[in-house]
Amino acid sequence: MDAQGHGQADDFDPADQWVFDPNTGSYELRLNPAGEPADVTPQDRPAPRPRSRRRAPDPEPPPSPSHGRRRATGKPEKPAGPISRRKPKPKKSKAKKALYWTSGTLAFILVGGSVAAYLVYQHLNNNIKKVDVGENNAAVSDGPMNILVIGTDKRDGKGNEGYGDAGSVGHADTTILFHVSADRTNATALSIPRDMITDIPNCTTRKDGTKEAIDGEQGVRFNTSLGQEGRDPSCTWATVEKLTGLEINHFLMADFNAVKTLSSAVGGVEVCLAKDVNDPKSHLKLSKGRHTIEGEDALAFVRTRHSVGFESDLDRIKLQQQFLSSMMRKMKSSGTLTSPSKMWDLANSATKALTVDTGIGTVNKLKDLALNLSKVDLKNVTFVTVPVVDNTDGATVLLDKAKAEPLFAMVRQDVSLTEVKKKEKADKAKQAAKLKGPKADPANVRVKVLNGSGKMGAAQETVDWMQNSEGMLRSSNGGNASADLKKTTLEYAPNQADQARRLADSMGLPGSALKEGTKDAAPMAEMTLTLGADFKGAGTPITAPAKAPKDIQRVEADDKSVCAK
Questions:
Q1: How high is the pLDDT of residue 503?
Q2: Is 222 left (phi over 0), alpha (psi -120 to 50) or beta?
Q3: Contact predicate 189/176, CB 8 Å
């Protein structure tokens, strides 16, 4: 991917044309001569008048400063104009000025009226590169959103010859799934280790109207989901969806140049090291302490691993999370949002560096997405690494299912890792009350299982598990439900509450799944368990845990104290 972009409009620098208007307290785009209307073109301007050789008349003497004094003619002198009693318009505070800019890093290109403004829009639009992944989702949608961010190791771009693997087609070197909650109060960024062994499903690439089916592979490195065997971002998209169970809305892909240009556009990014680092492979050489880095140093920082931690890719992920958190803080700072030149540099660099899906393939759509995601407070953004364990080969890692599945369940069910949803906590406490009380012996649990999950054989799989692993011998397969459900439910009578609590405890059902009737049931009556789309497999808890698994690697985006060790 060529990060330099195309379709340049280099005959002017829009950043130099922003002028502060004291009347409004904000910046305005002035691309036409001073005093000229914005819609006037060079052809509309009147021809200059020829200079006269005649001497200009002597100027009249200035009027007397005394209001109402009579001239020699005896007539009273007219006042220069009416005296205004209106108070001067107060200037806007710096905070209000900043508010104009927080409407989006690309909003300034929407200034209407002039040909130059249109050229700015086209310039940024032409920078953006798009890939058709077979999805054309709206830029912004209701409910939670999942944005796949991919960093490739392709060498394209000026000055990148010494980075990555020679001849690399561009693998998924850095991959983050950015999940934003439905109410936009919090977000979780899942870093996926590139060396994790996983299965890559079949996928379809689309180029110039031609589709090509790409076969999947089992037991290979995650980073080969891109570039290898002709795979494009649609294949990484499919791999991440299969791995996490989350539906992706959009993807953003960047190369080495993105780190260099974006870090420079915001005026540098502050990072911290707990010790001196001199990594000849990444070319990072920094002393212990805090540094503001950009350009080549920024790229070296996010690529280094041989001088920190255990020199693994997992240690490099920690550096990347620290860097991205700091960059997000810098982007949202008033120093960036109130500077027209920085805003232009940021918009220009971002659009040049990005490849996106067609659903956000224009400046307007990217702006809408950025505005929507910017509602999340940084203190409620958590970076977390997908839990893994070492593989026997010493070079790769394996998914730690015991920790990963609860983590994925939390993200799927929109549970915040920063635990900021007070309303959700209160609701959980209310639902948890249903689960308190005596539990029946497993042998006395009578339940009929219906399959509304859309997964073939789910009901029988659950019955087998209940009877063989949980001792619930009085369970039966009720076949398919009348319709598929999103959520698993358990219907029971008041006198079956102890049986319901036992089953809920075994299956990890949340209190919200328990539906108590109003009348007692006959002694031999069965409860009804209907499996929904949230059913992941017999023995896998339905509910998401209230807290993240212990010992997972995580960083809060607003934590400025993080230092790489």
A1: 93
A2: alpha
A3: yes
Residue 471: the pLDDT is 94
Q: In the numeric block, which tokens belong to residue 470?
A: 């949980």
Q: Which tokens hold the place of 554?
A: 């995580």
pLDDT 10s digits, 355-364: 999 999 988 8
Instruction: Pull the structure tokens for residue 148.
Output: 């796949």
CA atoms within 13 A of residue 352's CA, in its CB half-sphere: 23
| C-alpha–C-alpha distance, residues 168 and 170, integer Å | 5
Lowest pLDDT segment from 228-237, 508-517, 554-563: 554-563
Total number of residues shown for the chain: 565
Residue 198's contacts (CB-CB under 8 Å, 6 or more residues apart) are 219, 220, 221, 222, 239, 243, 399
Of the listed ranges 40-44, 135-139, 299-303, 536-540, the one predicted with least confidence: 40-44
Q: How far is CA 203 from CA 153, 225, 238, 279, in A?
A: 21, 10, 7, 38
Q: How far is CA 542 from CA 108, 290, 405, 462, in A?
A: 47, 44, 10, 12
| pLDDT in the model for residue 169 | 54
Q: What pTM was estimated for this model as a whole?
A: 0.61
Q: What is the mean pLDDT of the chain?
A: 77
pLDDT at 23 over 50: yes
Region of 389 (left: φ > 0; alpha: ψ -120 to 50; beta: rest) is beta
Phi, psi of 311 (to 5 degrees): 60, 35
User: Which one, of 396, 392, 458, 369, lies nearest residue 184 by Cα?
Assistant: 369
Q: Look at residue 351 and tell me whether its pLDDT is greater than 80.
A: yes
User: Which residues make Cβ contacts (< 8 Å) with residue 233, sequence separation at least 6?
Assistant: 131, 133, 148, 150, 226, 251, 253, 355, 357
Which tokens hold the place of 298?
């920024």
DSSP 6: S
Q: End-to-end CA distance of the chain, in Å?
A: 33
CA–chain centroid gap for 127, Å, is 20
Q: How far apart are CA 481 and CA 492, in angstroms?
A: 16
* Angle (nearest 5°) at CA 139 between 134 and 140: 130
